[in-house]
Design a protein that fits this description.
The chain contains 24 helices and no strands. It has about 475 residues and is an all-alpha fold. The chain has 2 domains: about 210 residues, no CATH class; about 240 residues, no CATH class.
């Protein structure tokens, strides 16, 4: 909960910028920004090459804990310097790939963001392993606040100063029309600020390099690099593919609309991302105890219940959530939201399921599953983006994560059986989709917005009542909820 809440708070602060950015930027400029930020997480995977998960896996053996931290950190420093240099040298080629040939400087600035973020990865992991959630939360949130402050400064304060005081000294650092560039520079400042705050944890290593241990770690983490690449193909590459294959007269605007509507899956996205932060070290520690499979099954049950409720909260009140996007231009893409919500639900379930190949050291299985998912994403987008635009991207994401979820479940049950109540969980997902369909049919009657919201609230309450009754035994074991039920 500590790590989950702090991660949600940090990411939520970042998401709060969406209404501001969709208002301050043209839809095409917002699309250009999303192209850049589709590239960054993809390269983050390359720069960290699975070392975070490997750290949690190998740090469990206390006798080699110091060797693990030193070896991983030295490896990360050398690789980060090398990859950052290469990225700067080949910035023109990278800019060509994402069709931003006129802004090669963006790639240089991104290289510094990715490099600094890579260097802080293991320092953040050390805080999580050492159970220091307060410092972890403060640093995460402080970095986001720095980014928000600089974003507002560049997009709102500087233009106002330029208009009212054209000779002001601050204008020496400001150039009108470079809004996307300033967003990237704000991110550079955030990454540098975060690195400075983590300097104590980062420099806790010694220049020791255990080659035997490093080879063992690489055998474990290299398949995770493929998993990460596949994950980023599935998660962010669709914006780049939309730029490549869209037949729209203005593909950047189409990317902006799709990216803006993607943000409306905020509740499930935030929950899944925060869950990953807290769950990975928790799952590994549980694997050392008795009957961890039972714990994994219970976690899955509560996870599915939570994301089902979140799905309903978004889709039943989509007419409210759409105002999160400041320009009505974005509302033309709202039909992708339910599809993306279900896709992210599948992704979260997949993260739960993936524990089987991590604790059994079968990370190649994870690489295979993710590779299959990436293939589905590429194929569907290639075939259907020219005809259906961003709708193809949404369905590709849905089918990709759905396939990965099913493959991981079937494969995992053969290797490391976990007693998931899968029939019940599938039923919960089907029920919320049906409830959404009922709400759509009711809205077509034409009784007005107030009646639609009232009916949606009734459906949400009915689902909550249904879950409390079906899972009465589970909830009764929780102090606060159990007292309410009894």
């Amino acid at each position: 909960m500590w790590y989950g809440v702090s991660s949600i708070a940090a990411r939520f602060l970042n998401y709060l910028l969406t209404p501001y950015l969709t208002s301050a930027l043209l839809t095409s400029a917002y699309g250009e920004m999303q192209l850049i930020y589709s590239l960054i997480p993809f390269l983050n995977i390359l720069f960290t090459y699975g070392l975070e998960t490997a750290y949690f896996r190998y740090i469990q053996k206390k006798e080699q804990a110091a060797d693990v931290y030193d070896t991983i950190t030295v490896s990360l420093i050398i690789s980060t310097i090398s990859l950052t240099t290469l990225m700067i040298l080949f910035r023109s080629a990278i800019a060509d790939i994402i069709s931003l040939q006129n802004h090669t400087e963006y790639i240089t600035w991104c290289a510094f963001i990715i490099g600094l973020d890579a260097l802080t990865t293991i320092a953040f992991a050390k805080l999580r392993h050492d159970n220091r959630p307060v410092k972890y939360a403060v640093i995460r949130i402080s970095g986001i606040l720095v980014y928000i402050a600089l974003t507002i400064f560049f997009l709102s304060v500087c233009p106002r100063i330029a208009k009212d005081h054209p000779d002001h000294f601050l204008l020496l650092f400001y150039k009108p029309g470079m809004e996307v560039g300033y967003l990237i520079l704000a991110n550079v400042a955030q990454s540098l600020f975060t690195f400075i705050l983590l300097r104590k944890e980062f420099f806790a290593f010694r220049w020791r390099f255990n080659k035997t241990l490093w080879r063992e770690i690489m055998r474990y983490s290299m398949p995770l690099l493929i998993v990460g690449f596949g994950g980023m193909v599935n998660e962010t590459m669709d914006r780049i593919m939309l730029r490549w294959w869209s037949t729209s007269a203005d593909p950047l605007t189409e990317i902006g609309i799709y990216s803006g509507c993607y943000k409306l899956s905020i509740l499930i996205t935030l929950f899944v991302q925060a869950f990953r932060m807290g769950a990975e070290p928790f799952f590994f520690k549980q694997s050392q105890g008795e009957n961890p499979q039972r714990t994994y099954a219970r976690v899955m049950k509560f996870f599915v219940i939570a994301v089902c409720l979140m799905f309903l909260v978004v889709v039943l009140y989509l007419d409210i959530w759409k105002h999160f996007l400041s320009r009505e231009t974005y509302w033309t893409g709202l039909r992708v939201v339910p599809i993306l919500l279900l896709a992210n639900m599948f992704l979260g379930i997949y993260y739960n399921l993936s524990i089987w190949y991590k604790v059994t050291n079968r990370t190649r299985a994870g690489a295979t599953i993710t590779f299959i998912g990436a293939g589905i994403t590429l194929l569907i987008n290639f075939l259907f983006i020219p005809s259906f635009g961003y709708m193809a991207c949404a369905w590709a994401t849905f089918l990709c994560y759905g396939t990965m979820m099913v493959l991981s479940f079937v494969w995992g049950q053969k290797v490391y059986r976990i007693p998931y109540p899968w029939k019940k969980l599938v039923a919960y997902i089907v029920i919320v989709v049906l409830l959404y369909g009922i709400a759509i049919l009711f809205s077509k009657i034409g009784l007005g917005t107030a009646a639609n919201f009232a009916f949606s609230t009734l459906l949400l309450a009915l689902f909550g009542w249904f879950i409390l009754n079906v899972e009465k035994k589970e909830f009764s074991r929780m102090p606060v909820i159990g007292k309410f039920i009894r």
